[in-house]
Each structure stands twice: as structure tokens, then as C-alpha cells.
Amino acid sequence: MRKFLQLTQFELAQVAGIHSRSIGKIERGLTTKLNQKTLRGLAVALGVPQEFLETVSRGQEVQLAQNVKFCPQCWNPSYTADPIWQNVQARFCYLCGIQLRASCANCGELVVSIRHLQNSIIL
Predict the structure, then answer these.
(1) Rounded CA gap, 114 and 18, in Å?
(2) pLDDT tens for each residue of 75-95
């Protein structure tokens, strides 16, 4: 995922708030268990749900979500989407009550990563 996002180990570590040597150990399979701080940081840096990383780190099969839901009013492009919005049953924002979106307002394409929204206007 790091390489797909064209990040160096140092860049990923910096965004995740962990030591760059940790990234190398994780990638080489030398780290068998990740603590919550590392999982949270990597999830934010890679733009994926923390549950995804937890599942992968346990060696279990991952079923990817088709899209990412977000609140067009509450979501700030400087931050990741609130994890509660990704709940399968979530239809409305728990903060403001507005219906969650799963597609781009401009082109109608499904949003598969909040990272893609950070460079476009969604409202």
C-alpha cells in the first residue's frame, strides 16, 4: 500500500507518527503484533480503516468495502473520515443528521478512498 501511494518509508512513518525503522520491520514481517498507536497512525497515513490493518496483521482475509461514506457537512479534508460513518447501518451523520454520501457530487463516481476527495471539491 505504501508503494502504491508512492510514499517512502520515512514519509509514511512521519505521517503515521512512528519510527521509520518500524515501517521496515513491518514490511519485512519482523513485527508480528502492532500496538494501537501504530495501527491508528498507519490507518490514518494510508487512508484505510484501522480494522483493515488489524485483519491484515492477523493474516486473515480482507473483504474490501465498495466505497467510503462521509458527511458532506462535517468532514474536513484535513482529517480522515469518522470511522462511525463506515458502519454498515450508518445512513446519516451522528453529529448533524445530514445523509451520508458515498459518491462524488461532481461526477457521481463512488468514493473508494477519502484520500481522493482531498484534492477535489465534494460539495
Answers:
(1) 22
(2) 877 677 788 887 877 889 988
- DSSP assignment of 3-58 equals TTTT--HHHHHHHHTS-HHHHHHHHTT------HHHHHHHHHHHTS-HHHHHHHHT
| Cβ–Cβ < 8 Å for 72, 105 | yes
Residue written as grid cell 450508518: 90
The C-alpha atoms of residue 82 and residue 58 are separated, in whole angstroms, by: 24
DSSP annotation of 116: H
The continuous run of DSSP H or E covering 117 comes out as helix 114-117
Model pTM above 0.90:
no
In whole angstroms, give the CA distance from residue 81 to residue 114.
Answer: 7
